[in-house]
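INFO worker-7 received task bundle
INFO bundle size: 2
INFO processing item 0
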Amino acid sequence: MMLETLVIISLLGCTHSQETQSMTLEEKTSIRHQIIEMFDHAYGSYMKHAYPADELMPLSCKGRVRGQEPNRGDIDDSLGKFSLTLIDTLDTLVVLNKLEEFEEAVRKAVSDVRFDNDVVVSVFETNIRVLGGLLGGHVMADLLKQRGEKMQWYHDELLHMAVELGHRLLPAFNTTSGLPFPKVNLRYGIVNPLSRTGTESDTCTACAGTMILEFAALSRLSGESVFEEHARKALDVLWERRQKGSDLVGTVINIHNGEWVRRESGVGAGIDSYYEYLMKAYILLGDPVFLQRFNTHYSAIMKYISQPPLLLNVHMHNPTVSVRSWMDSLLAFFPGLQVLKGDLKPAIETHEMLYQVTKQHKFLPEAFTTEFRVHWGQHLLRPEFAESTYYLYKATGDPYYLRVGQSIVEKLNTYARVPCGFAAVQDVRTGTHEDRMDSFFLAEMFKYLYLMFSEKSQLPINIDDYIFTTEAHLLPVTLSITQAPSQANATEDTSVSHDEDLFTHSCPSTETLFPNNPSFAKTIRDGYKYLTGVGRALHSLPVREIELPLHDNGIEPMEFLKSMGISLTSLKEMTLGDPTTQKEQKGVYRVRIVAEVGATTEEEAVVPHVVQLISPPFLGRTVLTAGPAKFGMDLTKQEHGVKGSIVKASPYTACGPVENAAELKGRIALVLRGDCMFAAKARWLQQTGAIGVIFIDHREGSNSDETPLFQMVGDGDSTEDITLPLVFLFSCEGAVLTAALEEHHNVDVLLLPKERQLGHDKMEKPISMNIKLLLTQEGEMEDSVGGPTLQFVLENEEVFSKEELIGSEQQDGRTQPCSADSSQSLNSNAGPET
């Protein structure tokens, strides 16, 4: 036992010393060559197997063409049939000194890429990836041409393409507020009836606030001021709509009236690049207004959101309250932004926390809890952590960050490399892959890694002459002096008082930050070395048992626990394990599920949905109340809902491979609740090509009158891959639907929010009247009764028995499995007008 302990201590010591020792020039050269080989593998696989498609599917070894692969929802809005990965990679080729490949790629882009496509794209993604890629490519091509080395045939073709694309994005800014629509049709714009967009009312803060670098550069390179004007206007609106008391902004805003839709505030998904672009707009354009705004926001971030080493989301109106107990991986860019600001200490602290999480899980999970457990297990090969590592190395010169960069390279090669490129990781806990290699992997990851291990003399350009966009495209900082903004572009100076420091108006200086103290960064890092418990022995703690009250006794409580960041092991598995090791597991609880709790909280109100039967003989008169899901397609954003024929899945629980996949393709699947999680069922059914799922409760007799509606939740991991519309029917309403299917075989339904059901605004209110019945013998009617009367004559020979009466009512369709409130009559003649 002692020998084993000594070996473990020796290994830990070796790892620690490797992280702290300097890196030789030969080591850096070796790693740089490895990065080039990895890039060649990824870019070569795209060009061989995918081009001219937008992205590579590295597991299938083919291109992802929108419309030919199963729809992934909003993720596919990045794809516009414009060879996305090629354009996104253009300036990376120059940074990696692949000038021959760059010239060939520019020729392909000019000859093959067209933007007159009838496709709806994300304004944000198209701006940062395609417009930014074209501008970065143009700047590089122009530079090489001026040197007389390459590109002598080039005559601003990429710039002309950028101007065309810019004009195709401009219709998105046609709103009353000046905030852009989140989507636009490249061919038809917004208002055209053929555009299939323009109905959205909300956009994220980052989506509206991450336009200024690309649009301003486009204006100054082309001479058309309209682009910069619109981008500045959008930033003005966001600044004006900030919460004046806290100086924070929310995550989602209404593009028409400027009201906040989601008020949580952080530095991760939904807000991230808004802050980044305020700082970088000052660097690129020289306008002090952007720096003043950034400094104001930054002070608020450090006051409310930053809780070193954590960065937590808070409520913008009540910023002392944290609104969630997990962080998303996109916030990993923030230490790099703090380096630009000159605030090194919190940058080092947060970066070290992120590094410890990667050591625990191999990669940064898409989201992780404040206790560093996996919240969403996906890793999409995001570059933000490498970006911050690069900035910290350039700022400190500490070889520790080269070792961090080396670990990124090694983990990509070990855990993400596949024969046809690099594949995203579906779950960092299992290491399973996902068939996607997003364009940002080539645009950003390889730039930051290559620059980290390169000397200035080894680069074909002076990297200090450029600012990185959020997609790592290169824009020259000389734009601010070579092309002065027009008077129309000037933003009003709205100065705000805030605490100023040494670097409020200047770039950071390492000599000033830590003079004669090369170990400055290490002294900060050491306090977070064992933050996640990785690298040191765990102290023995007893297994404690707690009881949690949870709703229902089915499988969904497991999802509730996972959403809290609690990892679950069944008592059976623990019993089978080694009893001696159980007691040594840190923070392990046995959980016993008991009792029920109330339904959804008021803050998370459930939007009622319906399943409306629209085929004959129902014609929209049968409407079943349904519950929504927190994942999958958001039906509240689908103007006309989702229409399709219903088919029962086989097996009915759909907890494994579906046997009648061909029958389900293009149809809406009926599936029984139970045996596995909603998300698992949805994934199996999505693979069949189904266009929607209706879950039916397995608890007999449940109905929407007696049981509150609830929202179905995922399985604790990311459900971004699930894009189907999902609704839930209680047993009573489900029986109506299955009975209709059995009787008519071909039943079409409409899935949509209750308030949008067909005929909802045309239904007449039922007429009520008071009828006074007087029971008299024949011929004894009182003469004193005035006004209209109804006379019922009961003859002895036509008295029905109880059983006959019930049977008659059932044949007439008047007795239903559910009450009239939860579903209207199944009989086609018993509509609202009856």
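INFO item 0 finished
INFO processing item 1
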Amino acid sequence: MDPGQSAVLPTVREALRTLSSSEDGDCILSTLGSLKRYLGGAESPAPPGEQEEFARRHFSDVLRCLVGRLSPGWLELLPDGQLEDLWASFFLEGPADQAFLVLMESIEGAALSSWGREGRSVLIPPFLPQNYFPLLGEEIVRVLQALVDSLRGGWDCSVSFLSQVLGKACVHGRQKEILGVLVPRLTALTRANCLWQRVCWRLVECVPDRAMEALLTGLVEAALGPEVLSRLLGNLVMKSKKAQFVMTRKILFLQYRYSTPMLQSLLGYLAMDSQRRPLLIQVLKELLETWGSSSAIRHASLPQQCYVSKAVLICLAHLGEAELRDSREDLLASLMAGVKSRLDSSLPAVRRLGMTVAEVASTRIHPEGPPLRFQYEEDELSRELLALAAPPPAADSPSEHGLPVVCSWVTGRPTGLCCFLSDDELVPYDMSGDRELKSGKTPAYVRDCVEALTSSEDWERWEAALRALEGLIIRSPAAAREVSVELAKVLLHLEEKTSVVGFEGLRQRALVAVVVTDPVAEYLTSQFYALNFSLRQRMDILDVLTLAAQELSRPGRLPKTPQCGSPSPASQPSSTQASAWRAVVEERIRSKTRRFTQVMPRGSGSQLPVPSLHVHWILCFRPLVTFDLLGEDQLVLGRLVHTLGALMYLAVNTTVAVAMGKALLEFVWTLRFHGDAYVRRGLLSAVSSILLSVPAERLLADLPDELLEAQPWLADVAEQDPDEDCRVLAVKALLLLEKLKGTLLPLSSS
């Protein structure tokens, strides 16, 4: 053994003995100072041979001793942090690999637990993810700065190791922590500095493919705009197939959780360089193909559709007319297919989405053609979509580009063309001759209202009759019963002849009053499938039935007792006509409907007649000459299902509830896999209505098999249905089902 080695060993042994036991701060300080000589950091360093021997054989033992003594009380043996600074210098100035391994051993080993909470807090916080990865980001910037300085000095350098470290951190889900430090620093350093830009490009190019997706999604999220993203990535998407797949496919088509600013950064990045712009055109084609796919519309949730719609409009905002011209036919075909499918949707939000995108996209894709216009009520989403696209080119005049197409959404189909001439020809109406309605025009009897609404050419009297009708029906129920079917027919076919404020509400409330006063629900249900009715009228029938059922089920409502005695001859000029109508209606009902008889709510305290509920089950499963519930008229089917669920819920505490529940559950089971989300929502709501309205003991006694089959279906919907509302409704139904079982479990055990 050489003299240098024999001199180091006794010194280290004595120092370790002192450090392990002494509580004298000055003694500990002197001992550490003597050991510091072997690190070369003292004023009189040890000979190189002794330094090498210390580093190779004894340094790790000294570090373990220092870690073992670590505690706040031990570090405070000397004032002003002298001992803490000297302690830290051994880890910072000695061999880094040994220091790192000792720290890792200490964190994981039993020695860590012996320090107590205070001792652990001294060592661990720098290594917690929220602290460690920002620190790692700072160190990467520091190394990159040294690398840039070396390049300026003419040295060849490699960033491969840094790329692997960065990719490893991102793969472990720490993009936010490390890029939150790295991106702002690199954003400032790459501004007007080509050398720093090339270093950044090389840094991301060398990231392994397995980490590329995690890195790019983090960068797109952290970068403030497409300019920054372009400086950091360069033409990475043209050099790396993996990066191109992530940027043009994965983020846009397979995920939809990213924000609108992130989409703008990504697509703006593709648009900022002439080499990348062909990718943007290809992305637009694929986005519109997805947007126009009827299958995607049926199976994608509304947030997914909004995400793709935003991406389409952002692409169009960056592309010029010349770039779109070669692909115009394909783009328009996809756009029109998507518009048609969305206008056929049962969900108002989906229809509004289609109309908004169609207006903007058609103008950008084919500016020479007639501008497409829809009538819809703007909401926050439609305003956001309109703001994403750049303003269309100003047109000289409508006559040069054809007539604007104006569509309104009433029954789900465009209603035609409207020609707008110049503003100079829009002459304001002369309202000087207008006058208020005279009180003498207001009818005093229900029959007078019927006459005014059917034959009067006096529009003031017509409006007065409509406004007075609801009150007259409520005040004179006997008179209303005499002409109830005729009155329901008139109101159902009534069209607005003048600009009456609140026309639809007045008409609907009058119809509800008629149904509540006299059970003409039979007539309305028969007319639901009759000829010569629009989809709007059929949905009006469903709304009226629901509102009337709500009114009839209201607690404490007094029954309406028919007046005794024969009415005067003057009061019944159309009684024969009403009887004839009743005969026709009853015959149609018997031949086409399944009927639940009149019921009395139990425990209501009054003999309140509830209108018979007629549900045309069999006709729902085949197309009729009037409309096709299982085809293009699925909006009406959705409203029908929601109405049946509402009626089921309102039938609580009635003797017919069990029979209704069983029949409705059979109906739900037949349509449970329907492709339209609005219909599925109604079916799931109907299941909840059954569970709430039918007594628990009757459910398990009369419907055990149906409930047993419903449970796995509901569980499947709750997990896999693409529509979020359907998943929520399925979970609620499952909870009701579990609660039902829990309620009856004590009864069965007893």
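INFO item 1 finished
INFO post-check item 1: The mean pLDDT is 77.
INFO post-check item 1: Strands lie at 372-375, 405-408, 594-596, 613-615.
INFO worker-7 idle
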